[in-house]
Specification:
alpha/beta; seven-stranded mixed β-sheet; Thymidylate Synthase, Chain A; about 25% strand; single chain
Length: about 240
């Protein structure tokens, strides 16, 4: 699908202020989702802070922003270096309405997006209809969070905001946390796929994909895998393996 190039100018409003923070935000700009995964992975592994998540050791970067200029769900880097089983698991999460056993029988993203809280409400179709009716809408915004039923599990990607600029369909998302050692690449693929679907329906090219992540991290169990993926960029013939 063709697209128009559009650059969102960034203004630094902090100049002249005395700002003290223990976690400076990180912005990663990348041409593709595969490059975005590798770049945020590099930042986490090189500059991340040791912490824990649900009792497990992680390396973490807080308040990360990923901006992907040309997102595609069939990304070459992800296909080559990501774990196929993890990709398939995430794809089922976004396309099947079964409960997710690994997440305590929580509703899948497919249910949250296309049958919100089992109400029959298809949020993706609602976004499409809204943008068709009002192409300048800045409130074609949906959530995966179901506060009346989400008591133990809170979906990582909770807000999806679609908008058109010069006919191109852009997507901005918020995630409270993303595990870039095992799931982050799958999240990016599925978000890009959703963006492609909406773009087709509103007859526009695909624009940028922006992901705001409060906690971008890699679990200790995936440190070796992530390091191998990053090292493989300098060894084209090497394909690292993910250890479950």
């Amino acid at each position: 699908m063709s697209r128009r190039s559009y650059t969102f100018p960034m203004t630094d409003f902090s100049r002249g202020r005395d700002v003290d923070t223990n976690f400076p935000s990180r912005r990663v700009d990348a041409p593709t989702i595969g490059d975005a995964w590798l770049r945020i992975g590099r930042v986490i592994m090189d500059a991340g802070t040791e912490s824990t998540y649900d009792g497990r050791t992680i390396r973490e970067v807080l308040l990360a922003t990923l901006v992907v200029d040309r997102p595609r769900s069939d990304d070459e880097v992800v296909t080559r270096y990501a774990n196929a089983q993890r990709l398939a698991w995430m794809h089922e999460n976004f396309t099947r309405h079964d409960r997710v056993v690994e997440l305590g029988d929580a509703d899948s993203y497919a249910t949250r997006l296309r049958d919100y809280d089992h109400s029959g409400r298809d949020q993706v179709q609602w976004v499409i209809n809204r943008l068709k009716t009002d192409p300048l809408s800045r409130s074609a915004t949906i959530t995966t969070f179901q506060p009346l039923s989400d008591t133990s599990y809170i979906p990582c990607v909770s807000l999806l905001d679609f908008f058109l600029v010069d006919d191109a369909l852009h997507l901005a998302c918020y995630a409270h946390s993303v595990d870039f050692g095992a799931k982050g690449y799958g999240n990016l693929v599925e978000l890009a796929s959703l963006q492609e679907e909406v773009a087709r329906e509103v007859h526009g090219p695909v624009g940028t994909l922006t992901l705001f992540v409060k906690s971008a991290h890699v679990y200790e169990s995936d440190f070796a895998y992530m390091a191998a993926v990053l090292a493989a960029q300098h060894e084209p013939g090497r394909v690292p393996h993910h250890t479950p």
